[in-house]
Design goal:
- By secondary structure, the chain is mainly alpha-helical.
- The N and C termini lie far apart (42 Å).
Length: 88
């Protein structure tokens, strides 16, 4: 893909993709650490792993909220535009 092809992506979309990837990575890291704790019997690693999984889930939930708010704002803006067109 040429460099100019990236201009169609908004910074918010790219940021969201990155944040979702970070969340998935955090969840995977947590699963690995928790599994290591299970194998070795190390409750510290088990707890840390579970905490990282929760953190990753929270990061995903935050992205879902941002996406929902953006969608709602877009719907309001679209409705306002339609109303303005009817008035003109």
């Amino acid at each position: 893909m040429a460099a100019s092809d990236y201009s169609s992506y908004s910074p918010i979309t790219l940021s969201t993709m990155s944040n979702r990837a970070d969340a998935k990575a955090k969840e995977a890291e947590g699963r690995l650490e928790s599994a290591y704790g299970d194998l070795t019997g190390d409750t510290g690693h088990q707890i840390q792993g579970k905490a990282k999984q929760v953190q990753g889930s929270a990061m995903n939930a935050a992205e879902d909220l941002k996406a929902g708010a953006k969608s709602a704002a877009q719907k309001v803006a679209d409705a306002a535009d339609r109303l303005a067109d009817k008035i003109d």
